[in-house]
Structures are given as C-alpha cells and as structure tokens.
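Suppose a colleague, Dr. K., hands you the sequence of a protein chain of 207 amino acids and asks what its three-dimensional shape might be. Before reaching for any lab equipment, you can write down a predicted structure in token form. Begin with the sequence itself:
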Amino acid sequence: MKTQLKKNEKVILTIRKHWFVLLKPILWTLILLIIAMAGSNSEFGNFLLIGLGLTVVWFIYRILDRNTNLWAVTNLRIIDEYGVFSNNSKETPLDKINNISYRQPLLGRMFNYGHVQIQSAAESGSTIHKMVERPKVLKDTITQYQERYKQEQIKEQAQSLANAVDGQKPSGGIDIYEELIKLNDLKEKGIITENDFQKRKEKVLNN
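The predicted structure, expressed as tokens, is then:
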C-alpha cells in the first residue's frame, strides 16, 4: 500500500479484485497462442503474432491493474488505491459511511467474490466496487471497526466533557466520565431515549 498512514492508524484488512478478473485475458491469450502457432506458416502468420503480442501486453496490464487496485480498511478509514501508470487514492472516514452491502452471483458464491456498494456522506457518495474478493469479510470488517471507532469517539467526548467540567478534581472527573459512558450505553441499547439522555447528562454535568 502506498498511502501514508496517520498517527495511531493501522491496517486491519487489505482486499483486491478477485482473480476471476484475469480469466478473460488468460483465455484470450491461450486461444491466440494456439491460433498463432497453427497459422505461423500461413500468409497471416505475422498478423497473428502481432495480435498475440498485443494480447500478452493486455494480459500483463491486467495483472498489474489487479495488483495495484486495492481496498485497505484501517481503524480510521477505508483507502481505495488504483492506477497502473499513475497513483490514485480515495479515502472514506469510517464515521462517514452510512451503509455497506454486497451482492454475490452464483459463481460469486462458489468462488467467493461479489460486488460491494458503499454509501457514504463523503464527496464520493455511493460507490460500487465490482469483482471484489471476500466481500462478506470486507463488509463485516468495516462494520466492526465502524462500531469501535464510534465507541472511541464517544469515550473521547465523554472524557473531554468530564475534564472540562471538573478539571480541578481528577477523581470527580473520572466519576463524570463513567456516568456519561453508562448513560450513552443505555441510550445505544434503547433503554432511554435521546431526550432522557440529554436531561440526565445535563444533570450529571451540573452536579
């Protein structure tokens, strides 16, 4: 991966296009190789060899394209790198992803590839990535680290609130921090409403 990682960022998963994307170039190369060998002594022999050479170049290009086209899931974002002759990179922060889904055709279920759709609030909007290997693993990993990222953000916000309100009393700050975490857990589980959460949070901070 060519993208530079941020501080405290680590790569969790790296996914590429499935090897099925090379199937067509392989078949065409083999077919033209057989035809070129069979017709090498004919009047079209040179044209067949040129066609075979171009197909081999195309095959090599597709291999390079698969190797350089990848999706990396980190604990902070999704990085989409692509480009054979140029380096291109797009990223989507985990907290900007609204939904991720995947679809597998019959062969996809057999050989473990599929088409992944990522809907985000970032500039990229909705993006479909085709012929992705291990689509379920990609989806589950993103979902898992989205939740972890969300919980880390909640903890940081709660700690900042606790420090701001009771900065002169470290022990009191810890109590406030813990109370806010508990209240947020209740809200996430649906035990209390958003309105109840805000009222109780205000009460904790005022105390």
